[in-house]
Specification:
Blueprint lengths: L20 E6 L2 E7 L4 E9 L3 E10 L22 E3 L11 H10 L12 E7 L3 H5 L10 E7 L15 H4 L3 E6 L4 H5 L11 H16 L5 E11 L1 H11 L9 E5 L18 H10 L6 H10 L2 H10 L24 H7 L6 E7 L4 H11 L1 H4 L1 H9 L7 H4 L1 H8 L8 H30 L3 E7 L16 H5 L2 H4 L8 H20 L1
Helix pairs in contact: 11-16
Length: 511
């Protein structure tokens, strides 16, 4: 794939006759109605950068609220509704620790609403001009827009879809969709038996993709040109979706940012019955029983506010950096380990764009070292921290001396800052960069077309020590062009944002 500013954009405009829409105006604000399989939704027209228009449909349900009897179960399609459902505001984020709410506010300032009733998506649609409408492809009834579906990260514990703002990307002639999925214990609690098989968050992702396949033509989208894009745990998720038989036919291209299903932390490969975190969670909410079936009955009977409060107040996950709740090889949703599925299973999607930032481990490593006082106790303490990285692959511990020699030259006598820098490289390579390279190697061996990127741009306005995990998301959201409450940007940053967004759009449209 050759991606450059000279890449030609082939635009085929959708036929209005095939998509039911109605536009109204109230006090200067324009609203647009679109029909879905479940009822009519009313979005609004937003003006981006003073002139470019995007239709926004925020908080559209793709599943029933996963509460009470639907708690810890596969999602079900939403109920139909009569009349017009307004879609003007973001839905609540799924329940998560207070740290996760802080993480959301880094991207979406002042947002702090969480609820179990959280399975909603946001749709950003280019606003067709009168010229494009007059020149629609009436004869072939072909939808105009390729579709980008973004799956957020946050270690399967934190975050929400709207951390990626699709407005700017949508002005470049693609539809952008973001959505929430269940997190933490509500999304991934498992006991290695039929009571709690786990993977509810992955099943939510599948349900959202099914909704898109069924409804995107109503928004002018082409269901044959759907690209899924995920960052961090979302990157692990899109990698898993490539390997899952249940995801067949739901997308054609993949973008995997700073996350891989082959990472040690991405999947529980050998579940424990019942696991340690299951006991912690059920004890915290006050559910006990003679077996997991009794505990499940208790959990389903709890009011939502009890569960939401316990999750909100739960501490950060252990400093091993391995999420306590994550996808599991259950024999159904994930029939086997990612490595075996990649080697022998059918691969979903024809091509993948995958990559990393230059300093992936920076944000995680420095707080970890500060918490453990490595600067006070030196490299012996650092070795103990590294040895705790691997939960599923104990063999890593036997390689510790080789690892230390690779990143630190003997006799290991360095200042604190040098220790932190080396440790950040270890964290980034182990958790992100090496598994991403493994993705490229394994998928290319299966005749999947693989493109690789490295984001190494550091803004002069950024006071960070490097190009940290997730920084590119702010450029993909176009924040340098319109500003952001938490960051300052200059003209060079604006140019970088434009280039990065266009690269993404070119890939979504043409591969």
């Amino acid at each position: 794939m050759e991606i450059s500013r000279s890449t030609r954009l082939v635009l085929v405009v959708f036929c209005q006759l095939t998509v039911w829409t109605r536009t109204t105006s109230v006090e200067g604000r324009r609203f647009v109605d679109r029909q879905t399989s479940y009822g009519t939704v009313r979005g609004f027209v937003d003006v981006i950068k003073g002139r470019q228009k995007v239709e926004k449909y925020l908080g559209v349900p793709y599943a029933k609220p996963p509460v009470e009897n639907l708690r810890f179960e596969a999602p079900e399609p939403p109920d139909t509704w009569a009349g017009v459902r307004t879609a003007y505001e973001l839905s609540p984020a799924c329940p998560q620790p207070r740290l996760g709410v802080d993480y959301i506010q880094l991207h979406v300032p002042d947002f702090n609403h969480t609820s179990e009733d959280c399975l909603y998506l946001n749709i950003y649609v280019p606003r067709a001009s009168r010229h494009s409408q007059r020149h629609a492809d009436v004869q072939h009834h072909r939808p105009q827009y390729a579709v980008l579906v973004f799956i957020h990260g946050g270690s399967y514990q934190n975050g929400m879809g709207a951390m990626m703002d699709g407005s700017h990307l949508a002005t470049r002639e693609i539809i952008v969709i973001t959505f929430n999925y269940r997190l933490g214990p509500l999304g991934f609690l498992e006991t290695n038996d039929k009571s709690f098989p786990g993977n509810y968050g992955l099943l939510d992702q599948l349900e959202a993709l099914r909704w898109i396949q069924k409804n995107i033509h109503n928004f002018g989208g082409d269901h044959d040109r759907v690209t899924i894009d995920g960052h961090s745990a979302g990157g692990c998720s899109v990698g898993l979706l490539m390997l899952m038989p249940m995801a067949k036919g739901l997308f054609s291209r993949v973008i995997q940012q700073s996350g891989s299903p082959f990472a040690d932390w991405a999947v529980t490969r050998q579940p424990i019955t019942p696991n340690f975190y299951f006991k912690i969670f059920t004890t915290a909410v006050g559910c006990y029983g003679n077996g997991t079936a009794e505990v499940k009955t208790c959990l389903k009977e709890l009011p939502s506010d009890v569960i939401e409060r316990v999750i909100l107040e739960q501490p950060e996950h252990p400093v091993s950096l391995v999420p306590p709740f994550r996808p599991v090889v259950d024999g159904a949703v994930l029939p086997d380990t990612p490595e075996k599925l990649a080697a022998t299973g059918e691969i979903n999607g024809d091509e993948i764009l995958t990559g990393t930032t230059t300093d992936e481990g920076l944000m995680a490593a420095v707080p970890l070292l500060n918490n453990y006082g490595v600067g006070r106790h030196g490299l012996q303490r650092l070795q103990a921290v590294i040895s705790g990285f691997s939960v599923d692959l104990p063999a890593v511990r036997s390689l510790l001396d080789n690892v230390m020699e690779q990143y630190y030259q003997w006799p290991y006598e360095f200042e604190d800052e040098e220790i932190k820098k080396g440790f950040a490289e270890i964290v980034g390579d182990y958790f992100i960069s090496a598994p991403t390279q493994q993705t490229a190697d394994l998928l290319s061996s299966r005749n999947v077309t693989v493109y690789f990127y490295n984001f190494d741009y550091l803004s002069q306005q950024d006071r960070s020590d490097g190009v940290y995990h997730g920084v590119e998301l702010f450029y993909l959201s176009g924040y340098p062009l319109t500003g952001h409450d938490n960051f300052r940007y200059n003209d060079v940053d604006k140019t970088m944002a434009i280039k990065l967004m266009q690269l993404w759009v070119n890939y979504v449209q043409h591969g």
